[in-house]
Structures are given as C-alpha cells and as structure tokens.
Amino acid sequence: MMATFHDMIEQTMEVFMDDFSVFENSFSTCLTNLERMLKRCEDTKLALNWEKGHFMVKEGIVLGHKISKKGIEVDKPKIEVISKLPHPTTVKGIRSFLGHAGFYRRFIKDFPKISRSMIHLLEKNSPFIFLNDCIQAFRTLKENLTEAPILIAPNWDQPFELMCDARNYVVGAVLWHRVEKHFQTIHYASKTMTQAETNYTTTKKKC
C-alpha cells in the first residue's frame, strides 16, 4: 500500500496498514485527489471494498478516532461501552480494560499515574485485591474518557509549547498551541519509569 501511493502520502492522502484516507480543504480539490487515487488503484489492479468506503464526508471514524475540522476525538460509541463496564474481577479483566482505555491515552493526562494501582495487580506474584484505590482509578479513567477533550491538529505555522512534569515514578508532558491566552491541546504523553530511571534527577527526568 505504501509503495503504491508513495508519491501521494502526506500530500493528498494518508495510509494506515490496509486503510487510507484522501483529504483536501475544498470539495473540488478533494474530488481531484480522489480521482487520482482511483486511477492509481485501477492501474495497479488494487481492489477496494466499497462497502467500507465513505466518500466526500466532512468527518468520519479513522482508526477508532473521530476526525473532523474541529480535531481528533474519541469514538463515542466505543467510550459508551467502556463507561458501562463493571470493575474488573480478574487479572484478565484488568488487562482488557487497561488495553481499551490505553488506546485513548493521548486524551488522558497522567494516564500511568491514575492507572498505577491497577497496573500493580498485573505484576507477577501480586495478590489480586481490588481495593478502593483501584476502584477510584477505574472510575477516574472512565470519567476522563467520557469527558475527553478534542485534540487539535498541529499548526506548523504557529509556535508550540511543551509542559513537562516528573514525579517519583512517572513522567508526563502536554503539547499545545496557545491561541489568544487559551491552550489548545495537541497531545498528552506519559510513561512509567523503570527502577533505574526513578534514580534520575528531576531535571533529567523531564528531559
């Protein structure tokens, strides 16, 4: 797929494994790009599944995210399913929930910090006791998902601002644009540090 559309990628289309999206700012230009893409498919005998295609839309679901002119949002139907889940009663249940919630971690500030008590239950030889801190973490993650912000696409003509934070066991960052004294978030990032990394100085952790 990448080889087939190598000269169009990032210019008029984006490819994601066996899915792709053709885009442009205006209807007429998007139609031209679409025609060019279809001609390439015809020339290379690439078959498309028309039942899975959506044409000339202003918004749509791409890789589990809603994409529109407003930015990137979580897929509401998926979040609704997650929000109705009861708290896990097994290690497998925790792993499944964290997998679903983690898919949208770019929308959640301090994801590792919030989920730490649940992640601890996945450690080898750790007794499975779903205490109040785990219940609170579970509820907080669901609340953050249902109230997830809209993330904007980066504007390469505007300056970027990056805020970093470091705790004893986790580091986090927020990338945004400042527009008229308002912060417009582009991405949340965070990770749990290894045992060796926890010994770093605060300055080194942030770097």
TrEMBL record:
Stretches assigned to the Reverse transcriptase/retrotransposon-derived protein RNase H-like domain: 132-207
Record-linked SUPFAM superfamilies: DNA/RNA polymerases
Gene3D superfamilies: 3.30.70.270
Membrane-crossing residue ranges in chain numbering: none
Entry-linked InterPro entries: DNA/RNA_pol_sf, Rev_trsase/Diguanyl_cyclase, RT_RNaseH_2, Viral_Replic_Matur_Polypro
Keywords tagged on the record: Nucleotidyltransferase, RNA-directed DNA polymerase, Transferase
Tree of life domain: Eukaryota
Any GO molecular function: RNA-directed DNA polymerase activity
PANTHER family cross-referenced by the UniProt entry: POL PROTEIN (PTHR33064), PTHR33064:SF39
Protein name listed in UniProt: Reverse transcriptase domain-containing protein
Organism for this UniProt entry: Tanacetum cinerariifolium
